[in-house]
Design brief:
alpha+beta; 4-stranded mixed sheet; 7 helices
Length: 186
């Protein structure tokens, strides 16, 4: 999936609007998205050290801009899910080193995302599958405010509900609404 960063950003925006928000996978995403409290950017290179630095620079800008959400796309990093997940752990370590771990939450998305214990093609994995490897930065204050209004197990309930909804979706609808955005390599 090689293309310009604008192509990857456009594809991710369509995925967010049609899958994440369109299927209500994240019930808290619509309001900040509609209010423009988000940003989408791409790292155009292939160097992991530079990619980490780029992600941390974006994190600092995210804090300064006071957005609720930021998506950092890595379309040129040809990493399988495990390697990208390890990369995301290095970014999270950098966030902690910057003293921002209580301010920013980082969520990993990847075309091959797989929850531990799940079968490779389980539909529940598509909750965190995206068109390209990406990191989603969330403002911890906004997230905490939402969660304080909900029960403490809201994340688990949403995840279970999403998995069930995707598993029960007819194959043609799943293909048209989800799979068309996530093309697995190889």
């Amino acid at each position: 999936m090689v293309g310009s960063s604008m192509d990857s950003e456009k594809r991710v925006i369509e995925w967010i609007e049609n899958v994440v928000i369109g299927l209500n996978l994240c019930p808290f995403a619509k309001v900040p998205w509609d209010n423009g409290e988000w940003e989408v950017t791409s790292y155009k290179g292939e160097d992991l050290n530079e990619a980490r630095k780029f992600a941390l620079d974006i994190t600092n800008n995210f804090i300064k801009n006071k957005n609720s959400s930021a998506f950092i796309i890595f379309p040129q990093l040809k990493l399988d899910f495990i390697k990208f997940y390890n990369f995301s752990a290095l970014v999270e370590q950098g966030i902690e080193e910057l003293g921002l771990s209580k301010v920013v939450q980082c969520v990993t998305f990847h075309p091959e995302f797989r929850f531990q214990g799940e079968k490779k093609n389980a539909r529940g994995n598509y909750v965190n599958r995206s068109p390209y490897p990406l990191l989603h930065l969330l403002d911890e204050g906004t997230l905490s405010a939402i969660l304080s209004e909900q029960k403490s197990d809201i994340g688990e309930k949403i995840s279970h509900s999403n998995s069930k909804m995707l598993e029960n979706m007819p194959s043609h609808e799943f293909s048209e609404r989800v799979l068309k955005y996530i093309k697995l390599e190889g």
